[in-house]
TrEMBL record:
It holds the Pfam family Xan_ur_permease. This is Uracil-xanthine permease. Keywords: Membrane, Transmembrane, Transmembrane helix, Transport. InterPro entries: NCS2, Xan_ur_permease. Coiled coil: none annotated. Its main location: membrane. It is a multi-pass membrane protein. The keyword Nucleotide-binding does not apply. GO terms for cellular component: plasma membrane. It is found in: Membrane. The chain crosses the membrane at residues 7-27, 33-49, 56-73, 79-97, 109-131, 151-169, 176-196, 216-233, 298-318, 324-347, 359-377, 383-399.
Length: 411
């Protein structure tokens, strides 16, 4: 590839990832400029650990939205960052275990019957937040920010655009449904006069992102640790996907242990600066597939571009002016899609729900997650994805497997 075009290819990859990258911090109340910075830093660290062999880009992980919302509300942003740093160490520990024990223990500890319902809870648990924001309310529904009829028109416009681009668009455009939805929703918001440009006018062109140093509270740390379960398993699928695209086996070279460690270190670095956890982006993998841009140097330039844009103050301020209904409309599809990924995990791996053991694990996990079950002892409490992950793992460990002979007799 001509070296002159590598930086341009890198900028193109960031454009593909941009919508999802900034949407996550907007939903959780984190700083979009910090998210850009930590995505860039995280990707560079990942490349360093994997010897610059894997052409993937790391950025904001949607799997952590619900835990971050709960953490920020309960302990504040600094303590939440401390918990997310601990989650990053889980990745590193898993990478170390894979290096010495192989991947079998991961499949035994986290089989599809555990991972599937946990991923479903990540999406379904956020459904009320998406609907409230689509109707012009705050995420918890406690306050009305925009008149409902106006909000509904805007959110449906953003949602419809996202669906049309995702289903009917061709080429690289098809990989940018979130960005397209944001743009159309924003234009509609301008038409209704609900966009406040004062933050952009007051912002300087060059500005330091609002970095936040982590603090460490054991409640936040224990709450975040189990949340790393589902994203860690998804990471394996993402590495397999990019391996299939490039025709190289990245599970062997540089090795799954290195990619897991790289993802973990990227998340640790992100939380150090107050940014969202990092994960591999399937949108960018799709763009790599379409453009045949297999050179990892491209992702280096994607990361550098993200870091540079993080210091453009007016860009960060502009992101903050995106109205709530725009995000809510897109989230209706996004969170449903996450739940569908969990369902597909069960289907693709042929998890037999007629088997009482499997049915019990899935049923209890789903009801605990959707119903808002919480366990607490003193100051320590578990709820949401954290509780669901632990419950699913325990049930999978203690419930006996049904052997084939018993299965035949009961069928």
């Amino acid at each position: 590839m001509n070296r002159m075009f590598v930086p341009l290819q890198g900028a193109q990859m960031l454009f593909v990832a941009f919508g999802a990258l900034v949407l996550m911090p907007l939903i959780t109340g984190l700083d979009t400029s910090v998210a850009l910075f930590t995505a860039g830093i995280g990707t560079l660290l990942f490349q360093l650990i994997t010897n610059r062999q894997v052409p993937i880009f790391l950025a904001s992980s949607f799997a952590f939205i619900a835990p971050i919302l709960y953490g920020v509300q309960t302990w504040g942003i600094p303590a939440t960052m401390g918990g997310l740093m601990a989650a990053g160490f889980v990745y590193v520990l898993m990478g170390t275990a894979v290096k010495f024990k192989g991947t079998d223990f991961i499949h035994k500890l986290l089989p599809p019957v555990v991972v599937g319902p946990v991923i479903m809870i990540i999406g379904l648990g956020l459904a009320p937040v998406a609907v409230n924001m689509a109707l012009g309310k705050t995420g918890d529904g406690s306050a009305v920010l925009i008149e409902q009829s106006t909000a509904l028109i805007i959110s449906l416009g953003a949602l419809t655009t996202t669906i049309i681009v995702a289903v009917f668009a061709k080429g690289i455009t098809r990989l940018m449904p979130i960005l397209a939805g944001i743009v159309v929703g924003y234009i509609m918001s301008l038409f209704f006069g609900i966009v406040d440009f004062s933050p952009v006018a007051n912002a300087s062109w060059v500005a330091l992102p609002n970095f936040v140093a982590p603090e460490f509270h054991w409640q936040a740390i224990l709450f975040m640790l189990p949340v790393a379960i589902a994203p860690a398993v998804e990471h394996i699928g993402d590495i397999l996907a990019i391996s299939n695209v490039t025709g190289k086996d990245y599970l062997k070279k540089p090795g799954l242990h290195r990619t897991l460690m790289g993802d973990g270190v990227a998340t640790i670095a992100a939380s150090t600066f107050g940014g969202p956890p990092n994960t591999t982006y399937s949108e960018v993998t799709g763009a790599v597939t379409l453009t045949k841009s297999f050179d990892p140097r491209i992702m280096t330039w994607t990361a550098i571009t993200a870091i540079i844009l993080a210091f453009v103050g007016k860009l960060g301020a502009l992101m903050q002016t995106i109205p709530v209904p725009v995000m809510g409309g897109i989230m209706c599809l996004l969170f449903g899609s996450i739940a569908a990924v969990g369902l597909n995990t069960l289907i693709r791996n042929q998890v037999d729900l007629s088997e009482p053991r499997n049915l019990t694990i899935v049923a209890v996990t789903l009801v605990f997650g959707i119903g808002g079950m919480a366990f607490g002892i003193g100051e320590f409490s578990l709820s949401g994805i954290s509780l669901c992950g632990i419950v699913a793992i325990i049930l999978n460990a203690v419930l006996p497997h049904q052997d084939s002979k018993e299965a035949d007799e009961t069928s």
